[in-house]
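Recall from the previous chapter that SMILES is a line notation for molecules. Here it describes 2-acetamido-2-deoxy-beta-D-glucopyranose.
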Amino acid sequence: MSLLTPLLLALAVAANPVLIPKSSAKALKARGLAKANGLSIDAVINEQIDNQVVSYNASVGVGSPATTYDLIIDIRSSNTWVGVGKLYVRTSTSVQTSNRVSVNYGDGSFSGTEFTDQVTIAPVHLKGTLSPAILSTVPTVTDNLFSGELITSNEIGISFEPTTTAESLNGELTWGGTDSSKFTGSIGFTPITGTSPANQYWGINQSIRYSTFTSILATTAGIIDSRTTLILIATDGFNSYVRATGAVNDPFTGLLSLTRFQFENLQSLFFTTNGITYELTANAQIWPRSLNTAIGGNADSVYLIIADFGSPSGEGFDFVNGFAFLERFYSVFDTTNKRVGFATTLFTHATTN
Ligand SMILES: *[C@@H]1O[C@H](CO)[C@@H](O)[C@H](O)[C@H]1NC(C)=O
Ligand SMILES: *[C@@H]1O[C@H](CO)[C@@H](O)[C@H](O)[C@H]1NC(C)=O
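With both inputs in hand, we obtain:
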């Protein structure tokens, strides 16, 4: 079968009222380091499950006849696996390999049996390996789509809209291309960073500035991560942001909070990568107020989505542009050209929060 057009898939976004413990981000960095040094990931890090405020799923069929599973979209990992909540149903297309699989994400793990099976994404079928055992050396479903000539380029375009209700259908994933109806202007690309350990993920070089003159981070490496809820910044940069905004730590949510007056004076943050600057407005820097109570906060308070990474800058992994960033910018993960792209959207300057 040949279908050389991008595939679109709507994503369901569920906002579950729990925040990620800080230690998850540190584990992510440690895992990247271990991987860069060729160490066994499982042997090095053990850490608790992370709780996410926001998770999003794509409905994918496996087998023939297909059983439909809600797969969590995780750009951080190359594994596709099923079996939580809904057991894997073997059909005539399911072929068991001789491999056992076990992956520790640091913030959770799974183990199981490897199969190759038919995967149905929208109306297209392809053979994919489920639960590949070794990260990054086994073709992902996207790789297989590409090598099977079902899509023209090995890339994924991701569109999210700011989440203001506990559950909403507001994302779109495009396999093999981008959806120009989801962004404004053009996509600016930046190469994957050479700096370790950020280069073990979708890592880029980026600087962050508050308002016109306040440097938060000089150009340094970090990652884009769809599974991290907030925007995390190395402790020294985070402290500069705290000083610039006057924010204080809120013990109930664990987030920074601002008074009304401070919020009225909150300035934009500017993220610059490869010479292109993306503006994260004041509104985009706050937690959606409609979800304040869902995280144990006060309905009338203003909480910030900028959080402390928990380790100093200069260690090759100094920021995580998480979901709160991706809700404001269209993103493209281009495997062929080893680069990440961003574009503004209708929501970049929206005041939904
Ligand atoms: C996403 O998938 C997980 C795991 O199957 C499930 O628990 C969750 O309810 C799903 N969320 C949505 C919005 O479908
Ligand atoms: C990123 O920053 C590092 C460290 O300054 C530099 O060596 C590298 O050339 C930069 N660009 C890329 C694409 O890695």
